[in-house]
Amino acid sequence: MPAAPLPYRAPREPEVDRLLREPVFIIAPVRSGSTLLRMMLNAHSQVHAPHELHFRRLEVHFASGLARKALAALDLDRADAEHLLWDRLLHRELARSGKRVLVEKTPGNAFSHRRIAACWPDARFLFLLRHPASVAASWHEADPERRGPEEAALDALRFMNAVERARAALPGHTVRYEELTGDPETALRGVCGFLGVGWEPGMLEYGRHATGEPAKGLGDWREKIRTGRVQPGRALPEAAEVPEALHRICAAWGYAAGGAGPVASGSTRAAGVEPQGPGPEGAGAEGAAAEAAGGERRA
C-alpha cells in the first residue's frame, strides 16, 4: 500500500521562504522530447536547464520528536521543510549558472504538479506533447526486454494522463514535439516569448553549448540527442495503427486515432477523458495516489 499523501501548503511568506523566483517546469511524459527541449533552452544565454534533478524525491524526516517540535514552534512542518530544501537546491543550481531563468524537466513532475505549484506559487509551466503512439513506441524501444509494446503503451499512458491532468489544472504554454523537430525556430520563439527572453539562433545548435554528456536516468542518453542538433522526428502513425488504449488521450491532444480524426487540443470532455474529481489536497484521486506512490517508474 502506498503511503498517504503528505499534506502540504503554499508558503505563507513567499518573499521570505523562497529564494527562487518564477521557476519554469516542463510537464511532459517520458519519451516526448523533453531532453531535446531542455538542451535547446540551456543553450540560451539567460536560461539554465540542467539535467533531471528529481528534487521531489528529496525528503525530510525527523530523527527525534524534539526536532519535530522545534520546527512546529517555527510554524513549519515536514512538507514545509522539504519545500525549503527543494527551493534551496534549485536556487543554488541557478545561481551557479549565472543565468536568470531556471527550467526543470523531470518527467515525474507531472504526477506532482499540484504540489510544485503550491511550493512555488509563481511557477510557470511548459507543457510538451507528442503523438501518444510515438511516445509509447519510443518507450518500448528504450528497453524492449523490460517492456513489450502493449505494456509500454499502458505505462506511458500513466504519464500522459498525469500531463493531461496538469494541463487542466494549471495555466501555461503548450508546445508539441512535432513542432519542435519540424520547425524548431518557430516553436522556440513561442517558448522564448512565454519565458520573457529573446530568441537566440544558437539554441538550434545546442551541442555547441553542452556542458556534459547526458547520463542515463537523468534524461535521454541516446545517439540522436548526442548529435547536438535537431533531428527529424519519426513519421506519425496512421490513425488505424494507434493502440485502442491510446485513443482517448490522442483525441484529447488533437491527434487522429482509430476511425476518428483529430479534435481541438484540450477538448477533454469531447474526447471522453473526464476531468478528475477532487481528492486529497484537491488532487484527483488517481493523481493523489500516483503522487503518493512516487508516480513514475523509470528505466
Description:
Residues 261-299 are annotated as: Disordered. Its EC number is 2.8.2.-. This is Sulfotransferase. Pfam families: Sulfotransfer_3. Residues 262-276 have a biased composition (Low complexity). The protein has 299 residues and is of the alpha/beta class. The protein is 41% helix and 7% strand. It contains 13 helices and 5 strands. The protein has helices at residues 14-17, 34-42, 65-73, 78-97, 113-119, 132-142, 149-169, 177-182, 184-195, 223-226, 247-253, 268-271, 285-292, and strands at residues 24-27, 47-48, 101-104, 124-129, 173-176. It has a 5-stranded parallel sheet, with helices on both faces. α6 packs across α7. It is globular and about 60 Å long. The chain starts with 13 loop residues before the first helix and ends in a 7-residue tail after the last helix. The model is unreliable at 263-294 (pLDDT under 50).
Which helices and strands appear, and what pairs or packs with what?
Layout: H1 14-17, E1 24-27, H2 34-42, E2 47-48, H3 65-73, H4 78-97, E3 101-104, H5 113-119, E4 124-129, H6 132-142, H7 149-169, E5 173-176, H8 177-182, H9 184-195, H10 223-226, H11 247-253, H12 268-271, H13 285-292
Parallel strand pairs: 1-3, 1-4, 2-3, 4-5
Helix pairs in contact: 6-7
Keywords: Transferase
Organism: Streptomyces boetiae
Biased composition (Low complexity): 262-276
Question: What labels would you give this structure?
Answer:
299 residues; alpha/beta; five-stranded parallel β-sheet; 41% helix; TPST-like; Sulfotransferase
